[in-house]
Amino acid sequence: MKKAKLKVITSEKSYRLALKAIEELWDAKPGSEAHDSLEVLALLVDDYERRTFPMEDPDPVAAIRFRLEQAGMEQKDLVAILGSRSRVSEIMNHKRSLTVAMIRRLFDELHIPMEALIPRHAEAR
Prior knowledge:
The chain is an all-alpha fold. It has helices spanning about 10-25, 35-50, 60-70, 80, 85-90, 100-110, 115. The protein is about 60% helix and about 0% strand.
């Protein structure tokens, strides 16, 4: 196995080559030079993927709608969890953000993962 050349991944071609090299190095013994190369390549691939395929923040309303559909529930069923009908309507129409208490109740009552309810960025939708 030839030694992989480590450099920042800037193209689809170099990305594919890095993935191939990772596959070849996958069973490298920890502490070996090959394993060190594997770890660096994994970091380079992760960096390229984050730059090239950015993930959007989850849409809490979409997560709530999905869970309601799964459970055979309707929007009106959220009143017991989120408060008044008008508050539920504001949230479901992206006019009001979820509070921490609402997120906890949605997690506890509907088992919606918190990661789906909390955007990574502070700006409201």
